[in-house]
Amino acid sequence: MFESVLPGSKPGFSTSAKAFLALVAVACIAWIAFVLFRGTSQTDAERVSKRFENLAKLNEANAKKMNSYAWVDKAKGTVQIPIDRAIDVTVSDLKDKAPAQASPIATPAPAPAASPAPPPATGASPTVTPTAATSAPTASSETSPIPTPAAAFTPSESSASPPPGVSPSASPTP
């Protein structure tokens, strides 16, 4: 781009291109030095002090509002009270109230009661038959470690009662 196009001249930057690049480099260095090393002016210090004054006035007004009584809306009877008094009133109100449930909790529907197993037929008793590997005699129901269907769990009246909050008519009867 900056190469000389004259026959017999050496390829490279022309003198005017070198001077332009040097001028741009000096301008960049001067701008960086100006930005980095400039001091705060008198107007900056004045603005900072004015901001601190405004902040002090705002904090004073907030403190006055937080610690005084005033009418917010006289027609509606709304008043402003000091924050310490508001905390005391709120705490005393909350002490008098019972905790409320956050949201209604749905109770699950009761599971249907399991029906008891039918009793064994009269005269018939379960027996254990020996296998080819064992030569144990036939065991009667009195000595058998296997429970009979009559010994199975049957729900009592107390376990079949509905959970709290559910009407008895909605629960199934055993």
Provide an overview of this structure.
The protein has 174 residues and is mainly alpha-helical. It has three helices and two strands; from the N terminus they run H-H-E-E-H. It has helices spanning 15-37, 42-66, 83-96, and strands at 70-73, 78-80. Strands 1-2 form a two-stranded antiparallel sheet. A hairpin with a 4-residue loop joins strand 1 and strand 2 (78-80). The longest helix is centred in the first third of the chain and has 25 residues, at 42-66. It starts with 14 loop residues before the first helix and ends in a 78-residue tail after the last helix.
How many angstroms does the end-to-end distance come to?
Answer: 101 Å
| SS class | mainly alpha
Query: Outline, from the CA principal axes?
Result: flat
Mean pLDDT, nearest integer? Answer: 74
Strand order, sheet with most strands: 1-2
Largest sheet: 2 strands, antiparallel
Strand content: under 5%
Outline the low-pLDDT stretches.
none
Radius of gyration, Cα only, in angstroms? Answer: 48 Å
The overall strand count is 2
The proportion of residues forming helix, as a percent range, comes to 25-40%
Total of helices: 3
The helix/strand order is HHEEH
